[in-house]
Write a structure and sequence with these properties.
The complex is a heterodimer of chains A (93) and B (312).
Chain A lengths: L1 H24 L3 H23 L6 H26 L10
Chain B lengths: L1 H22 L3 H21 L3 H23 L9 H7 L1 H19 L9 H6 L9 H9 L1 H21 L18 H20 L7 H18 L10 H23 L12 H22 L18
The chains are: A mainly alpha (93), B mainly alpha (312).
């Protein structure tokens, strides 16, 4: 069972790696940001899996903190993207 | 086996992401990559069996700093320096960096690998410290003066932040077209308060504490700042000043009090140490939350002030 959890955590980490391609290639800033948020969700999953190991229960709190603070970044992003005149879709770089 | 693969994956990704953060030509992309890197480093700390650092990384390093950087983007028009071009112009800088990295690496590698450091002393005196978690014992009892000075640094930092951007002291009108409502803030507040209280409480016997709890509360403050008409807290308000000073003043009081009964600075009485640490942590949570919140400069006043340079 611990081996299965670790394998799942590794699989989730590979998902993050696949997402990295999207972060680097974009094309729009919104794509990148959504992927970063997906990283957050996946990372919470990895942390919860790691927390199931004996003696690692504190990692559940880390996952909790991540999940709680993720919306703050989203709000800041929306404020930035909406406030900065042209929509982020136009920022093709 | 899979654990080793996972670790190798993390170890390869972190330097790659760090390079991408520096290399990217757009500030907004750097911020997105920075958030991703923070997440992976929190995972790395978790794998290195350092849940305390992982928690701080999640709360302050990534959660709040990511939001702060993202928010700062709306205040800036500047393009980032082209790191790669600079490196090409100044090859000696690259050499100096490589030398520094080499020296640091050598210093780390020359450390004795199985030296327990002060772990034994900390464990031996844990029962006298008033808390059950060694990290909290070190931070608030054995080396309490470090934490005390850190809080002073935070107060200076918030003054600096306000001095750099005095416009944030003024109230700014809410922009009319507004996709965000206060609904999110109302939904998040109970969870944030609960988790912040939990983190202060859990610090006594596990990873947690004032800094993480303060970051959670500040996160709530930022959501309020960006979605409601509350506005940013102003230094001129007495309530804000008291919130900023509660933690440091109480901590100084707790530090100085033992001097009057013939003990050393910060030498708590064994029987009261637990209570003192808990009260100081609660007060510090309020102050740290206020400090972190005040780093966010509120909404940028008028679009007209921008120089018209948008990222292409």
């Amino acid at each position: 069972m611990p081996e299965l959890r670790m394998a799942l955590a590794f699989f989730l980490l590979l998902n993050i790696l696949a997402g990295l391609v999207r972060v680097v290639r974009g094309p729009t800033l919104t794509d990148r940001f959504i992927v970063a948020q997906l990283f957050g969700t996946t990372g919470v999953g990895v942390l919860v899996l790691l927390a199931a190991d004996p003696g690692q229960a504190a990692l559940r709190d880390v996952a909790l903190v991540f999940a709680l603070l993720a919306p703050v970044t989203v709000v800041a992003f929306v404020r930035f993207a909406v406030g900065s005149g042209p929509s982020p879709e136009q920022e093709r770089r | 086996m899979t654990a080793a693969l996972l670790d190798a994956c993390l170890a390869l990704c972190l330097p790659l992401l760090a390079w991408l953060v520096l290399r990217t030509e757009s500030l907004s992309q750097s911020v997105v990559l920075f958030v991703a890197m923070g997440l992976l480093s929190a995972l790395a700390w978790a794998r290195l069996d350092a849940p305390d650092i992982s928690l701080v990384e999640a709360a302050v390093g990534t959660g709040l700093t990511g939001a702060l950087l993202m928010h700062t983007l709306s205040w800036t028009d500047e393009r980032p320096p082209d790191v790669a071009a600079r490196a090409r112009h100044r090859p000696w800088a690259v050499v100096a960096m490589a030398a520094l990295t080499g020296m640091l690496g050598w210093a780390v590698l020359s450390l004795p690998s199985d030296d327990p450091g002060l772990t034994r002393e900390v464990d031996a005196h844990l029962a006298e410290s008033g808390v059950e978690h060694p990290v909290t014992a070190v931070l608030l009892n054995y080396r309490g003066y470090d934490t005390l000075l850190e809080i002073a640094v935070l107060l200076v930092a918030v003054l600096g932040a306000r001095a750099v951007n005095p416009r944030s002291e003024r109230t700014t009108p809410e922009p009319s077209r507004d996709p965000l409502t206060g609904e999110l803030f109302r939904m998040m507040t109970p969870a944030l308060l609960l988790v912040a209280g939990y983190l202060v409480w859990v610090g006594e016997h596990g990873p947690g504490g004032a800094f993480q709890a303060g970051a959670i509360l500040a996160g709530g403050g930022v959501v309020a700042l960006l979605t409601t008409r509350l506005g940013t807290p102003r230094m001129s308000s007495w309530r804000v000043r008291w919130a900023l000073l509660t933690g440091p003043l109480l901590f100084i009081g707790a530090a100085v009090a033992p001097l009057f009964s013939g003990r050393a600075l910060l030498e708590y009485r064994e029987a009261q140490a637990g209570t003192v640490i808990f009260v100081v942590e609660l007060a510090l949570t309020v102050s740290i939350a206020m400090v972190l919140w005040m780093f966010f400069p509120g909404m940028r006043p008028a679009r007209a002030e921008r120089s018209g340079k948008e990222p292409s």
